[in-house]
Amino acid sequence: MARNLSSTGRVTIFSTLHDWETGSRCILTYTTMDTGLTAVLGVLPVEGNQFEPGDLLSLGGRHGFVGEWKGSHEQRCACWLACTGYGSRTVMKPGTIDAPDADWSLDMAHAVDLDSTYYGHRRVVAGRMTLDDPTLTERAHALLKRPLAAA
Description:
This protein is 23% helix and 44% strand. It is an alpha+beta fold. The protein has one domain (3-145). A five-stranded mixed β-barrel has the order 1-2-3-5-4.
């Protein structure tokens, strides 16, 4: 059952390829709660983005896992999300938005308590993110308009 969370803090916003077959991208957000023990990841809805992922844990499952992530499928999906969020902040790709003091809310669809600490997190929550600042939301939506880098 979905539950709403809200807070103010540093939010990292980035686009990601979420479906290899269609080449579809979405906007993800990453922030933390509980002095960093909880990773909060949300897809930022973009009107007209018909390929937006509905379930972030499933998104993690489609991308595969690395060997050091142990536990159930759900645990490993949550580890993928924690890794993706943490990595987006520590090694920012061009276009990433780092908002140091953003008000946000999350319609939480999933919460996973991790069996050990991954990327500084003991818990991952995921769902649909809303940013209170319309200018920041507009900047985030513009990330989908950026062309993919040519290889």
